[in-house]
Here is the input.
Amino acid sequence: MSLNQDLDPLTLRKVFAQHPSGVAALCAEIDGVKTGIVASSFTVGVSLEPALVMFAVQKASNTWPKLRHAGRIGISVLSERNEGVCGQIASKKGDRFAGVATHTTAESALFIEDSTLWLDSSIYNEVEAGDHWVVLLEVHGHRISEHAPSIFHDSGFHALRVPELV
Here is the structure.
């Protein structure tokens, strides 16, 4: 079997879309303004001591330069109840948080209500990786809900059913 050598960006988007992933909103309130980005590249369990997670963000992002200066960043792993939130927060126009129920901590970490998981974090390190930054975040606290996570696969969102414990 031969491997396809076509690595242009459009092809790679289709190829990478075959890997199912959770979707995380990384948000903070900065000078009274709700600011956030969405990442399907979010990864947990990078390190347990210290507790580290990570994600990748395009260098061309207009939002990351603002968000990187937040003291704390709220990570909300989106659930099936957050339908439409991903596209809204990722939008480049309009009020990204209009009608979205949120919670802001005293440290200005911003969380999306009805998410599967909340992680209170701060930047631990940033590493240049091609046309992206890989950002390591240190976790300071968490909250888990019973909502089923939303999964991004094949360029669409799907609910992942969580079995009930007997």
The chain has one domain: 22-154.
